[in-house]
Write a structure and sequence with these properties.
With 164 residues, this protein is of the alpha+beta class. It has 6 helices and 6 strands. It has one domain. The longest helix is centred in the last third of the chain and has 16 residues.
Length: 164
């Protein structure tokens, strides 16, 4: 007997009305990504193809529900998580970021388990964290043309695409 979605989200996450999440089954994790970043949107599309949609749901960090889960309650408040993917585990509400978040996502594929375990080896963890930080710092320069507007938000275009 499956639990209703509202009961699934009752603890430790904030309850949301069932009609807000019209999915058949609740996901094992939520992935919050930066929708102002062309590289991040491409990574999301790749992730959606690699990880079954019944396991992971993708939401932009700019989404009101995502902002609430990340502790960013007001619209004007800057995203403290900008530059870092956030993965929220549905079983306990734990939010993991950066390379650790990606390693957690690897657990949701049969072929990704080795990456998850390798990440937890101390020297490999340091290497993965450093590479992730380098890519995150330069994500607006990878795979497209990006400019920062007067508010500091990025406007990005990929080759052959118009700005969002």
């Amino acid at each position: 007997m499956a639990l209703p979605v509202v009961e699934f989200f009752s603890s430790p996450m904030t309850k949301e009305p069932q009609e807000a999440f019209p999915f058949q089954t609740p996901p094992a994790a939520w992935v919050f990504y930066d929708d102002t970043c062309a590289f991040c949107r491409r990574a999301r599309r790749l992730g959606e193809r690699l990880i079954r949609p019944d396991r992971v749901r993708w939401l932009p960090q700019q989404d009101p529900w995502a902002r609430q889960q990340l502790g960013l309650s007001t619209e004007g408040q800057q995203l403290e998580t900008a530059g870092e993917i956030k993965v929220m585990r549905a079983d306990n509400g734990q939010i993991l970021g950066g390379a650790e978040g990606l390693a957690t996502l690897a657990r949701f594929t049969w072929w990704g388990w080795p990456a998850y375990w390798l990440y937890h080896i101390p020297c490999l963890k340091c290497l993965a964290d450093s590479v992730y930080k380098l890519v995150a710092k330069n994500r607006h320069r990878i795979g497209g043309h990006c400019q920062l507007d007067e508010t500091g938000a990025a406007t990005c275009t990929l080759p052959g695409h118009s700005p969002h």
